[in-house]
């Protein structure tokens, strides 16, 4: 009998996970069922991370395994089933700041969790965020920044989004090394994430996904 | 202008793993450990790490509560130096970098969707800067003792009392351009894996450990990279 996919993925046993998925697909299992199991496993991974049983590299590793599962399952899905279910998220490192690895991890984790991510890169001009919200109607925006100066850029970006009349329909999260409640209030964001997992949880909450 | 480019970085596994955000080294997955070691090896076989340090010594001509006056008319602003090293005789303005190679590779991994590799290699780069700083400090201890003096531990712009706005000044004092380090208009050093610092020399200079730095840092409760909670 095939091993439990959810448990094996939660334990990050890559080779075993991929073997189980292949076996299930060969046996004609419902690809949506496989993805549902994987989704539950990712929740367990998230819990283990919040209890410090797993670390950021483990989290990213789980995302990479999930990505491989998606690649195996994709050909078996109907077009509708294969579509991103989480909704659009725009993300970028604010103007004046060029740090990328933290933002890239958030982009990756959102992507493997089913969000359609528009990654604007680093040192993103304020107007670029405004224009992209207009073009895509994305309901969630993530701003990343490391340096103290990034807080002013975040504040100005959020003010510009407001001035363009887009703030009411946009939830904004910020993140980066040393963001606190105080900095969040200063910038006018809706929430902040101390790590990529919080970013995913916030986006899910705002998209109405459990 | 003085440049040191024969520094050997002996990167140890534990230094590297700390920079990956692991708190308990024993619980690291074997797959990730293997990948870290593979990436570490790749930095040795390719030219991903090109450690260099540029510096200049400046005799101190005056100390005021919130600035230090240097021979030649330069000034370093901030209260940290006068309050920490009131008896200093000289300051060394220093900039260290591992060069642009590693971060280019990190970006390439990231663009290619290899996020785990990207973040692990990025952590290796940060650990390499840590070791480069340690080796540079050792060099300055040696230089100071040749003059019958002691070298302090380093302080960096961005620490309380040494404003980040001193970055441009410090980069000029250290002739950072000689090793290819520049500052963006918003004050970020490029290559990113670079650090700027000041070491004071004098008859009896203060030194401290990484644990003491972590204990005083405002991020001490939450920082994944602290040496305090392992
Ligand atoms: C490693 C490190 C370095 C390394 C590497 C830097 C690099 N950019 O690659 C080195 C030693 C080179 C360095 C140098 C400097 N550093 Co430094 N550095 C750090 C440190 C310890 C970790 C940063 C890091 O690499 N994190 C790894 C990534 C993966 O994490 P992350 O970016 O935080 O992203 C995660 C989360 O924040 C979150 N996230 C990120 N974005 C977003 C967005 C959203 C929407 C959400 C929800 C979540 C989210 O999710 C990510 C994954 O979980 C931080 C302190 C800290 N604990 O954060 C200081 C820190 C950033 N450095 C600091 C300083 C001052 C400097 C220097 C100026 C010091 C100097 N004078 O030389 C230089 C500047 C370098 C430059 N290029 O200009 C300060 C900045 C403070 C300030 N005033 O602006 C910090 C905060 C340290 C401190 N305690 O003060 N640094």
Can you put this structure into words, describing what you see?
The complex is a heterodimer of chains A (210) and B (230). With 210 residues, chain A is of the alpha/beta class. Chain A has two domains: 5-77, Methyltransferase, Methionine Synthase (B12-binding Domains), Chain A, domain 1 (Orthogonal Bundle), CATH 1.10.1240; 88-207, 3-Layer(aba) Sandwich (Rossmann fold), CATH 3.40.50.280. Chain A is 57% helix and 11% strand. Chain A is built from ten helices and five strands. Chain A has helices at residues 5-10, 14-26, 31-50, 56-73, 79-82, 101-112, 126-136, 148-163, 181-187, 196-207; strands spanning 88-93, 116-119, 140-144, 171-175, 191-193. Chain A has a five-stranded parallel β-sheet with strand order 2-1-3-4-5, sandwiched between helices. In chain A, helix 3 (31-50) runs antiparallel to helix 4 (56-73) and helix 6 (101-112) packs across helix 10 (196-207). The model of chain A has no long low-confidence stretch (mean pLDDT 91). Chain B is α+β, with helices and mostly antiparallel strands and 230 residues long. Chain B has a single domain (3-216), classed as NADH Oxidase (3-Layer(aba) Sandwich). In chain B, 37% of the residues lie in helices and 20% in strands. Chain B contains seven helices and nine strands, in the order βααβββαβααβαβββα. Chain B has helices at 13-18, 30-45, 80-84, 101-111, 115-146, 167-173, 210-216, and strands at 3-4, 52-64, 67-70, 75-77, 90-97, 150-151, 182-183, 189-190, 194-202. In chain B, strands 1, 2, 3, 4, 5, 6 and 9 form a seven-stranded antiparallel β-sheet that branches. A two-stranded antiparallel sheet of chain B has the order 7-8. The longest helix of chain B is centred in the middle third of the chain and has 32 residues, at 115-146. The radius of gyration of chain B is 18 Å and the shape is globular. The relative contact order of chain B is 0.19. Chains A and B meet through helix 4 and helix 6 of A and helix 4 and helix 5 of B. Cobalamin (B12) sits between chains A (56, 99, 101-103, 105-106, 142-144, 146-148, 173-178, 193, 195-196, 198-199) and B (119, 126, 129, 156-158, 164, 188-189, 192-196, 217, 219, 223, 225). Cobalamin sits between chains A (56, 99, 101-103, 105-106, 142-144, 146-148, 173-178, 193, 195-196, 198-199) and B (119, 126, 129, 156-158, 164, 188-189, 192-196, 217, 219, 223, 225).
């Amino acid at each position: 009998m095939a091993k439990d996919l959810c448990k094996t993925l939660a334990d990050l046993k890559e080779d075993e996970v991929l073997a189980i998925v292949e076996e299930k697909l060969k046996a004609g299992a419902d690809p949506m069922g496989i993805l549902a199991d994987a989704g539950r496993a990712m929740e367990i991974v998230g819990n283990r991370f919040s209890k410090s049983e797993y670390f950021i590299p483990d989290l990213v590793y789980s995302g990479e395994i999930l990505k491989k599962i998606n690649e195996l399952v994709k050909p078996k899905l109907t077009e509708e089933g294969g579509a991103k279910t989480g909704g659009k998220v725009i993300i970028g490192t604010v103007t004046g700041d060029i740090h990328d690895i933290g933002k890239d991890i958030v982009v990756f984790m959102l992507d493997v969790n089913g969000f359609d991510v528009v990654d604007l890169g680093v040192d993103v001009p304020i107007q670029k965020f405004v224009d992209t919200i207009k073009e895509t109607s994305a309901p969630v925006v993530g701003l990343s920044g490391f340096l103290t100066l990034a807080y002013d850029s975040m504040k100005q970006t959020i003010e510009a989004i407001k001035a363009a009349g887009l703030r009411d329909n946009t939830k904004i999260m910020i993140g980066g090394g040393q963001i606190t409640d105080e900095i969040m209030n200063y910038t006018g964001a809706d929430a902040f994430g101390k790590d990529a997992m919080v970013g995913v949880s916030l986006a899910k909450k705002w998209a109405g996904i459990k | 202008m003085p440049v040191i480019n024969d520094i050997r970085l002996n990167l140890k596994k534990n230094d590297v793993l700390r920079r990956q955000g692991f708190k308990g080294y024993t619980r690291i997955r074997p797959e990730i450990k293997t990948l870290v070691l593979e990436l570490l090896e790749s930095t040795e076989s390719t030219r991903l790490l090109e450690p260099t340090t540029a510096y200049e010594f400046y005799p101190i001509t005056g100390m005021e509560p919130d600035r230090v006056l240097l021979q030649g008319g330069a000034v370093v602003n901030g209260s940290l130096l006068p309050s920490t090293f009131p008896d200093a005789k000289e300051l060394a303005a220093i900039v260290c970098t591992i060069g642009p190679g590693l971060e280019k590779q990190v970006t390439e991994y990231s663009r290619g969707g290899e996020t785990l590799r990207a973040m692990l290699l990025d952590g290796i780069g940060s650990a390499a800067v840590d070791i480069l700083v340690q080796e540079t400090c050792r060099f300055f201890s040696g230089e100071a003792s040749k003059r019958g003096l002691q070298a302090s531990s380093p302080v960096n712009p961005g620490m309380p009392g040494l404003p980040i706005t001193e970055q441009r000044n410090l980069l000029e004092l250290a002739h950072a351009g000689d090793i290819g380090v520049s500052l963006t208009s918003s004050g970020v050093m490029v290559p990113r894996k670079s650090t700027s610092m000041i070491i004071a020399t004098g008859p009896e200079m203060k030194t401290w450990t990484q644990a003491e730095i972590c204990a005083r840092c405002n991020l001490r409760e939450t920082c994944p990279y602290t040496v305090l909670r392992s």
